[in-house]
């Protein structure tokens, strides 16, 4: 059916794979199921999904390495990834976010939570139906919302959908301090309870990718973040 969002599910436990697939299909998504990383990559050559649900523990490869490979690829780096993991330790989750995942969900999870996460991440990648004006800060930074493009000193950089939305949020109100809780609320629509470090990791990745313009994103200790166009380049 035309217009359906396409989701690739990579999960080696048949029962969980089927549970996820059935509930996403009930929610109106088109799904394809894979039990190995090699099957995923083979099918990516012919079809690109709107989102990938990726289990960390796969029989033929580590999900973290798969995520790294996808994010380094020119062809697949723009595909949002939600990691599905039985590892609930904060360090494991942070590693997943640091290498480019847009979100994570830990087993066991509720079907409602899973669908909510998927909707939240896909919503971040949706282009506005209305034309959005470019956001420009001199020759340092340019954001083109309609195209999901960001340029730093006229060089295009690749951001995940989450990184892009955080940058756009900050840039739309320069100088305005956004609390971590506010960022979480806007991006995840109050659908989940996450630790504050989730935002910190995405901000760190964003700064790294902004390179020489990373100084624009400022941490207000104990509160949150802001984008300051009058900030000083300390690099």
Features:
20% strand, Rossmann fold, 8 helices, 12 strands, alpha/beta, 38% helix, 235 residues, 2 domains, five-stranded parallel sheet, Arc Repressor Mutant, subunit A, globular, four-stranded antiparallel sheet, single chain
Summarize the structure.
The chain has helices at residues 14-26, 37-44, 63-72, 90-98, 111-124, 161-172, 180-188, 197-210; strands at residues 6-10, 30-34, 51-55, 81-85, 103-106, 135-137, 141-144, 149-152, 155-157, 178-179, 217-220, 224-227. It is an alpha/beta fold. Strand 4 (81-85), helix 4 and strand 5 form a beta-alpha-beta unit.
Mean pLDDT: 86
Strand residue percentage: 15-25%
- Number of beta-strand segments: 12
Low-confidence stretches: none
Distance between the termini: 51 Å
Question: Percentage of helical residues?
Answer: 25-40%
**H/E element string?**
EHEHEHEHEHEEEEHEHHEE
CATH class of the largest domain: Alpha Beta
Calculate Rg over CA atoms: 18 Å
């Amino acid at each position: 059916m035309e217009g359906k969002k396409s989701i690739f599910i990579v999960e080696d436990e048949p029962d969980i794979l089927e549970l996820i697939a059935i509930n996403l299909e009930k929610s109106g998504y088109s799904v394809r199921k894979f039990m190995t990383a090699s099957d995923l990559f083979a099918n990516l050559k012919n079809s690109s999904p709107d989102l990938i649900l990726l289990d960390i523990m796969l029989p033929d490869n580590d999900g973290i390495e798969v995520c790294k490979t996808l994010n380094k690829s020119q062809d697949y780096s723009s595909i949002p990834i939600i990691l599905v993991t039985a590892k609930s330790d904060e360090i494991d989750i942070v590693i997943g976010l640091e290498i480019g995942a847009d979100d994570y969900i830990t087993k066991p999870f509720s079907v409602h939570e899973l669908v909510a996460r998927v909707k939240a991440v896909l919503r971040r990648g949706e282009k506005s139906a209305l034309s959005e004006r470019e956001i420009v800060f001199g020759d340092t930074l340019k954001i083109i919302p309609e195209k999901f493009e960001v340029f730093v000193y006229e060089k295009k950089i690749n951001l995940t959908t989450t990184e892009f939305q955080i940058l756009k949020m900050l840039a739309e109100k320069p100088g305005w301090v956004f609390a971590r809780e506010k960022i979480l609320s806007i991006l995840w629509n109050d659908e989940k309870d996450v630790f504050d470090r989730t935002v910190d990791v995405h901000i760190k990745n964003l700064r790294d990718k902004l390179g020489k313009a990373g100084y624009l994103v400022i941490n207000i200790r104990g509160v949150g973040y802001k984008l300051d166009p009058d900030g000083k380049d300390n690099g």
